[in-house]
Amino acid sequence: MPTQYLPCVLALLLGALAMATSWAEEKKPDWIAREKIRAGWIYHGDGKDKLHFFKKHGLNALITHAGKPEVFDEWAKEARRAGMHLIGVLGFSFDAEKAGMRRCVFGNGYESVVACPTDERFWQERMIEPTVKLAREGMSAEKEISGILIDFELYANSEKGGQIYYTDACYCDACFGGFLKHKNLGDAARPPLGERKKWLKDKGVDAEYHPFLQKQVRALAAKMREAVEAVRK
Ligand SMILES: [Zn+2]
User: Would you say 79 and 47 are in contact if contact means Cβ atoms under 8 Å apart?
Assistant: First the structure.
């Protein structure tokens, strides 16, 4: 469920904030404690008009997509000029099938185009590497990049009739097989994709399944935060 991922999102956001250049001399960025985050989230327009508009109306931060470096770069430069905090969004809505990554399987057996949320390659290539790159760019005196926010809304999936969040996921071979191993349930009788959810229920272990996966997602998110913190050191 989205709320279950929230601690990860917040942890990452705060972790990423540690990279901000404005506070390189400080141990911890304390602008959130001091000013609170008063942010607007927008994907349209450009840095020049929106950053100044938001500032004029009492906001201190702007959240926008960080997926296109050439565009985000301009936002970051303008944020510095405007004296605004800029938070970049990296999304899980991505065609993992096209990229040859492990795909997410939902409870009804639907194998989606989006990535399995525990796929290490996805986290490395789509989350950790772009974030570290942004953290390095944020060290530049001419740019303001105050943090990263992970968007777990799966537009690439919902556009094809699937669900928009990782609720009821993931039942791919890696996730499901990892749980079987963890519980010593054996692997020989692995049921077809659409029957895995019911199988877990029949075995009386369904309540343990998602916490097991969430722990892995949290570990991957922590790895991302540590990679960002390492840039600042
Ligand atoms: Zn999976």
Answer: yes
Range of the domain at 47: 2-169+219-232
- Asked whether the predicted pLDDT for residue 24 surpasses 70, the reply is no
Instruction: Give per-residue pLDDT as tens, 86-132.
Output: 999 999 998 999 999 999 999 999 999 999 999 999 999 999 999 99
Name the 3-class secondary structure at 20: coil
Look at residue 181 and tell me if it is in a domain. Answer: no
Q: How many domains does the chain have?
A: 1
Distance of CA 110 to the CA centre of its chain: 22
**CA 48 to ligand 1 centroid distance, Å:** 41
CB 157 within 8 A of CB 95: no
**Digit-coded pLDDT (tens) for 178-211:** 999 999 988 667 899 999 999 999 999 999 999 9
Residue 26 CA to residue 18 CA, distance in Å, equals 9
- For residues 90 and 132, give the distance between their C-alpha atoms in angstroms, rounded to a whole number: 12
Give this complex's ipTM.
Answer: 1.00
CA 223 / ligand 1 centre spacing (Å):
18
- Under a CB-based contact definition with an 8 Å cutoff, are residues 104 and 156 in contact? no
CA 52 / ligand 1 centre spacing (Å)? 42
* 227 within domain boundaries: yes
Q: Degrees (nearest 5) of the Cα angle 31, 222, 168?
A: 110
